[in-house]
Amino acid sequence: MQGFAAGSVQVLMALSELRIGHSAVVEGLLLPDEIQHHLMHMGFMPEALVRAVRRAPTGDPTVYAVDGMEVALRRETARWISVRESEEGSR
After folding, report:
1. Predicted TM-score of the model (pTM)
2. CATH number of the domain at 2-90, please?
3. CB 80 within 8 A of CB 26
């Protein structure tokens, strides 16, 4: 998926593809309303900065830092959250 900004191309990806230690900006959630609202209350709002913190030893779930807290999401859920890599990149 690609989105367009003034004079540049922004590549969108699924949150599940974000590498550990890297940050991204939430673009949208394509989940059932009940799940979407729950995640939005935890901070997964459009334009929110989210960082992949760590993965479970088995590779799933992944812990993400958003809005001052850490949230573990399974790959199946995170793949429906679209993000664009942050200019801050990795920290």
Report:
1. 0.84
2. 2.30.30.90
3. no
